[in-house]
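Annual report, structural modelling task.

Input specification for the nickel (II) ion complex:
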Amino acid sequence: MNSINSSASKTYQSINFSDKFKLFSELWSQKVIAEMNDYQFKVARLQGDFIWHEHADTDESFIILEGELRIDFRDGHVLISAGEMYVVPKGVEHKPSAADEVKLLLIEPRGVVNTGAEGGERTSELDVWI
Ligand code: NI
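The model returned the following structure:
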């Protein structure tokens, strides 16, 4: 008897980005979908202008799933399309914006506030899982 195949099998569930985006519609609200060590994978919908801010203690990664995100820096900007990613180094001031709605995945250490030290109405609640 083959012990590898004989036991009842457990169901392992993959995480589907499209399914996660069906669970919320609000803009600028980060939703945690997974963790890896001390890092969180968060999805969000963005449209319009974010605020200038920086993250003193961590880099920030943007992985674009749908749409095109613009990130302005004090000395230039980058356009990130679906299927592309960009890492903003820690301590660098940046301002994301999107003319049309963007769906993206962020990978950051647990506890990072999206507006840095600036606060304000665009600040997303932490540790909201979907
Ligand atoms: Ni940021």
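The chain is about 5% helix and 40% strand.
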